[in-house]
Specification:
The protein has eight helices and seven strands, in the order ααβαβαβββββαααα. By secondary structure, it is of the alpha/beta class. A seven-stranded mixed beta sheet has the order 3-4-5-2-1-7-6. Helix 1 runs antiparallel to helix 2, helix 5 packs across helix 7 and helix 5 crosses helix 8. The longest helix is centred in the C-terminal third of the chain and has 18 residues. The radius of gyration is 17 Å and the shape is elongated. The relative contact order is 0.13.
């Protein structure tokens, strides 16, 4: 895929279908970076939206990736403009941010998710995004992150590696919160 075709594809996306527009944009960016040996990983709100199958709604794409300069160059060629720490595409009303070059989690657990034939994205693991929301719930006292972290865990309880979650907690308060979430889910199951 070349940049001109990618730009046309992005410009043809429907801004009213925000979820699809973000997924398609992320897949296009991922495909363009493939030739540069750069692997952008979706983290943050869009990963929550993907794992909750569109229950959560976000307005931006957060990537963790090395190659910031190359990604910036490609985003600008695709019609994004730089506004502070975000790259914004006015036509499709999508913002992209690259908050870090390092993944807060296990690279071996990153999922390659097929969007459609020949289009895919890389996605932080379910366990690692649950840990991300758990930390925000505990340390920032974020009610929204508490809700979504719990919902992610509850919705995917049979697939989640609980041992991995407990290995990733860093403080007693994180461990206690995770234990509470698990106890509440088990109570609801029984």
């Amino acid at each position: 895929m070349n940049v001109e075709i990618a730009r046309e594809e992005i410009n043809s996306l429907d801004p009213d279908d925000k979820y699809n527009a973000m997924l398609q944009t992320a897949a296009i960016i991922t495909k363009l970076l493939e030739g540069e040996n750069i692997k952008p990983i979706i983290v943050g709100g869009l990963s929550v939206e993907i794992y909750t199958q569109n229950d959560y709604a976000t307005r931006d794409i957060d990537f963790v990736s090395d190659g910031y300069e190359k990604i910036s160059e490609i985003l600008l060629k695709l019609g994004f403009s730089k506004e502070g720490r975000h790259f914004v595409h006015d036509k499709i009303e999508i913002a992209v941010e690259i908050p870090s070059s390092d993944l807060e989690g296990d690279y071996d657990k990153v999922n390659k998710v097929e969007i459609e034939e020949g289009k895919y994205v890389y996605l932080i693991s379910l366990e690692d995004i649950i840990i991300d929301r758990l930390r925000a719930a505990v340390h920032w006292k974020s009610e929204q992150d508490t809700y979504w972290g719990f919902k992610l865990l509850a919705k995917n309880f049979n697939e989640v590696n609980i041992d991995y979650l407990f290995k990733r907690v860093e403080t007693k308060s994180e461990k206690d919160e995770l234990s509470d979430w698990i106890d509440n889910i088990k109570r609801d199951i029984n």
